[in-house]
Amino acid sequence: MEWPARSPDLNPIEHLWDYLGREVAALNPPPRSLHELKQGLLCVWSSLPIPVSDNLINSMGNRCRQCIQVRGGHIPY
Q1: Average pLDDT of every residue of the chain
Q2: Could you tell me if 10 and 60 are in contact, meaning their C-beta atoms sit under 8 angstroms apart?
Q3: Could you tell me which residues come within 8 angstroms of residue 31 by beta carbon, excluding any fewer than 6 positions away?
Q4: Intra-chain end-to-end CA distance of the chain, in Å
Q5: Residue 14 binned pLDDT confidence (cut-offs 50, 70, 90)
Q6: Distance between CA atoms of 8 and 10, rounded to whole angstroms?
Q7: How far apart are CA 27 and CA 58, in angstroms?
Q8: Which InterPro entries does the annotation name (predicted)?
Q9: DSSP string spanning the chain?
């Protein structure tokens, strides 16, 4: 599949990674080993609030509309 070099990235996964990273960084005490980090990520992932995932999913329509409006140019996401 051809993929243009400067095509917009509409995938909301970066926002999900950001959320997970902030939640893990806020753990008290913070993870001090790879095992603790993995456990922290699993804990945060399993308690991911439904509104967070719903917001990411529901934003896709707006992302696509904005992308079409700017003809594939930059959009603020």
Answers
A1: 88
A2: yes
A3: 24, 37, 39, 40
A4: 24
A5: confident
A6: 6
A7: 28
A8: RNaseH_sf
A9: ----TT-----THHHHHHHHHHHHHT-SSPP-SHHHHHHHHHHHHHT--HHHHHHHHHTHHHHHHHHHHTTT-----
**Res 1: pLDDT:** 62
- Per-residue model confidence (pLDDT) at position 66: 87
pLDDT in tens, 18-42: 999 999 999 999 999 999 999 999 9
Return the amino acid letter for 66.
Answer: Q
C-alpha to C-alpha distance for 10 and 6, rounded to whole angstroms: 12
CA distance 4 to 59: 23
Q: In the structure encoding, which two tokens stand for residue 31, read together? A: 């993870």
